[in-house]
Amino acid sequence: MTLDNLFLELKTKPDQDYIVSLKYKYDFETDYCTQNEVLSVEDNGTYFEWLHDWNEGQTDVEVIGYIAVNDVDTREVKE
User: Fold this and answer.
1) Cα 67 from chain centroid?
2) pLDDT tens track, the chain, 79 positions
């Protein structure tokens, strides 16, 4: 999925923070970098802000997936 497709899709979702898995590289690189970033969606999907400004001119960016931060189960696992 492209970043533009991600933004279009998130416009239909509730305003909240999302963890977005990204895969990207520069033209001169052969290997991709993957990382998770937090994206805040506000004003009914008209405003998007990355918690960390990860974009430094990468030319090949793909969104691997995303999940709402509120959907992440952070409870401690009891054995």
Assistant:
1) 8
2) 999 999 999 998 889 999 999 999 998 999 999 999 999 999 888 899 998 888 888 889 999 999 999 898 878 777 7
Contact by Cβ (8 Å): 19, 66: yes
* Residue 63 to residue 3: CA distance in whole angstroms: 6
Rounded-to-integer distance, Cα 38 and Cα 50, Å: 6
> Where in the sequence is the domain holding 20, given as residue range(s)?
3-70
How many domains does the chain fold into? Answer: 1
Check: CB of residue 38 under 8 Å from CB of residue 17: yes
